[in-house]
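Morning F.,

Quick status update on the modeling queue. The single chain you submitted on Monday has been processed. Sequence for confirmation:
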Amino acid sequence: MPSAPKRAIDHRPLVVASLVAVVSVGLLVIAVALGWLGPDVGRGDGFCEAARPGCVKQPANTWSNLGFVIAGLAVAWHARLPSGALGGRTSLATAYAVLAVVLGPASAAMHATQTDLGGRLDVLSMHLIAGFILAYAVTRLVDAGPMALGVNFVVAVLVAQVLTVRGGHVPWLGSLGNAVFALMLVTATMAGFLARQAGRLRAHVGWAIAAVGSILVALGIWSLSHSGGPWCDPHSLLQGHAIWHLLCAVSTYGLYRAWRAPAND
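Structure tokens below.
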């Protein structure tokens, strides 16, 4: 029997993610320069870095979000390959890459401007990426199809946003939006583990450990670097929250590599 033809490299994931990166970052630059996001209300001032004069209020916490853009483009680069699909679908890997890219300028919007709208974009982008991760893990656990994944994603994000709008303070984590984000990631991790145990999710253990380890270290730094925390130096260009961004970007990329790769890759 003749061997099956090899899948060609598909450049669409990289093209789409690159276009989203250029457009979203470009829009952010214009919005910051022209004040489209509204007045400075001190949103995000609990993350230690002192506001500077000029357009970009928190430079370290702002520019570190480029890590998410790079992570998303790196995901898209691998998604070009025949082995780069998520769940056998290049479209899912592309969607994940796009959400990772968007997380960068959306989070930067808050730190650059300290506006209320910037803060809302930051939380929304967090819920979008966490919602996708949760929906993918749960869908693989119950062995459902892409339609179920889409429904799970929409429901997860809507519920997260409704709870965030209701508001509230959660000890240690701060806002209810942060708590929902954390809960989504913890639930996704558990669902992914159970799906792998059931043989419904092939995952690279090394990359999975790297992804979880990165975000746990990032969480520790995040908690110690808040305003008034032991690692807070408001006027330093080395900010713990900026390191949180970079380590979360590493975790975002690592999770993709864990889920897209066979266990023996």
